[in-house]
Amino acid sequence: MKRSLVALFFFASLIGAWQAVVAAGIYSPVLVPPPASVAEYILRALADGSLLHAASVTCQRLLLGYLIGCGLGLPLGLAAARSRSVSDTVGVLALGLQTLPSVCWVPLSLLWFGPNEGSMLFVVIMGTLWSVLIAVDSGVKNLPPIYTRAARTMGSTGLHTLVRVILPASLPYVVSGMKQGWAFAWRSLMAAEIYVTILGREGLGHLLHFGRELSAMDQVIGIMLVIVLIGLLADKLLFSPWETFLHRRWGTDRHD
Amino acid sequence: MNATEALQAIPPAKLVVRSVSKSFATRRGWLPALENVSLTVNEGEFVCLVGPSGCGKSTLLNLIAGLDTPDSGELASDGQPITGTGRERMVMFQEHALFPWLDVLGNVLFGLKLKPNLTDNDRREVARHYLHLVGLERFAHAAIHELSGGMKQRVALARALAPNPRVLLMDEPFAALDAMTREQLYDDLQSIWQKRRKTILFVTHNVRESVCLGDRVILFSPNPGRILREFPVDLPRPRDINSVELAALASEITRHLKSNSPMEPPASTHPTGSIAHPHAPRTR
User: Fold this and answer.
1) Is residue A188 part of a domain?
2) In this structure, which of A21, A203, B244, B281 has its CB flanked by the most CB atoms within 10 Å?
């Protein structure tokens, strides 16, 4: 209760400061629109359905690409951790490509796939795959050997050890890797959407781009707020339950 | 308790170690950890391996567990050569080695789930039975990090006992615990052993601990690891680690440990019979 009051006060004063800057009249209202007109834009875009449509298009692209990226990154990371030759090949490739900002995939993807859903998906997968792969790889490599030894004495072998011991034991690394992959995927998708317009399939990035073209600052700020909100929501829905589980079981409680 | 009774029907096994040697690769070359070690453990016997660190006692335990293979020599459990890990030989490590992603009951169930021909209800019943045996049934759904060091080792003991192994291999399981917790666990382990009649091989560097627990104490010397000599312990059970007789025998063994007495023939030349110690107090 007290915490939500503190948070409420913080964000209210942020909006208050914004309003004060607008009221002072130092900047043109074209560059710094009042909070009310941003709110008005959001309500209008919600009412005519364009905002929900864009958000759902963006989330679909993101989820599909993210799931494929994790689906590839998890087994490849496990393989890199367990096999030296995979680690020397795919592992090194992943390490190199992870240093590449995921935005850099956009031009290549456009040339390869053309301005369509395929190129969007490719960018999201590239954003996700490498960081998930590396997190799983290093998580498994850092496991204390005592877990697998203990499991062996109880008759666990092969696939059972992999699924019942190695994977859950490296869960803290896997979850933080998947979280990082999510953040990279989100960033690269926004870049791709700002770059490329697919008619009838406009995502949030497109609305942001149109806002710039029309010098509609209320739209630009409104869409930015929506993007931030979706990011927060994804964190709460996708990762918080896992993190709560990890903190409870591993005893690494956040002191809050 | 049908499932539990069925599990307990298996008779205890015995262990044979014949002329086993084992070296490890280090940066400075091959380091012999065990040299020509022979040892026999009878059914239901509680044998302690004692020696300074680096004497190969843990190496021997890992070989018997099937976690490592010897360079030469033979190992057999119940007449069958040891080729790998087996459910009839369970291990308790110095670090509890419990799985943090499972709760207490989940940890005890882990080995049971790998045991065929049991229903899930049987498994739960057996797991609860062993949690009760180590006095932790109320903590079935606790997370591992919520337990004290002594409780963690109790869970590890329950996990090792649950699949009803005939041999229990214990690698300094109490070394990291405080003295009071340890003494409680000596009592618990003795009573469980007497009830269940397991064959126990217990590795420690604590001589008093070995005299308190073992029917026989086997003294190792380091570099390379060899059996120096063995001592029968004929004190009545349950034994109290603070008793005078126990302390007398422990200091006797400690004296041998320190002198490393090269005049004595190594016990490994008599793998089956224990050498009677002239000063071993016989109270029975």
Assistant:
1) yes
2) A203
Q: What is the dihedral of CA B157, B162, B163, B169, to 10 degrees?
A: 20
Interface contact A146-B97, CB threshold 8 A? yes
Measured between beta carbons, which residues in chain A are less than 8 angstroms from residue B86?
Answer: 155
Separate counts of helices (H) and strands (E) for chain A: 14, 0
A58 - beta bridge partners?
none
Q: Do A150 and B93 touch (CB under 8 A)?
A: yes
Inter-chain contact A153–B91, Cβ cutoff 8 Å?
A: yes
Q: Does A254 touch chain B (CB under 8 A)?
A: no
Q: What angle do CA B222, B227, B233 make, to 5 degrees?
A: 120
Q: How close does chain A come to B83, measured CA to CA in Å?
A: 12
Residue in chain A closest to B110 (alpha carbons) equals A154
> Phi and psi at residue B220, in whole multiples of 5°?
-105, 150
Q: What is the CATH number of the domain that holds A59?
A: 1.10.3720.10
The residue among B174, B177, B164, B179 whose CA lies nearest residue B129 is B164
Interface membership of A155 toward B (CB under 8 Å): yes
A154–B93 CB contact, under 8 Å: no
Q: Residue B81: which of B18, B1, B175 has the closest Cα?
A: B18
Reported as a pLDDT band with limits 50, 70 and 90, residue B224 is confident
Residues spanned by the domain of A202: 35-250
Contact A149 B111 (CB under 8 A): no
* Tens of pLDDT, residues B180-216: 889 999 998 999 998 888 999 999 999 999 999 999 9
Q: Residue A224 CB: number of other CB atoms within 10 A?
A: 15
**Residues of chain A positioned with their CB less than 8 A from the CB of B115:** 155
Contacts of B50 (CB under 8 A, 6+ apart): B57, B204, B205, B206, B207, B210, B217, B218, B219, B220, B253, B257
Residue B162 amino acid letter: A
Fold of B2-88+165-269: Rossmann fold (3.40.50)
CA distance B8 to A254: 45
pLDDT at residue B5, rounded to an integer: 56
Read off the pLDDT of residues A143-182 as tens digits, 9 standing for 90 and up. 999 999 999 999 999 899 999 999 999 999 999 889 989 9
User: What residue ranges do the domains of chain B occupy?
Assistant: 2-88+165-269
Is A64 a domain residue? Answer: yes
Please report whether residue A28 resides in a domain. Answer: no
Of residues B65, B93, B146, nearest to A251 (C-beta)? B146
Q: Find chain B residues with C-beta within 8 A of A154's C-beta.
A: 87, 90, 110-111, 114, 159, 163
Residue B157 CB neighbours (<10 A): 25
Q: What percentage of chain A has pLDDT greater than the value 90?
A: 68
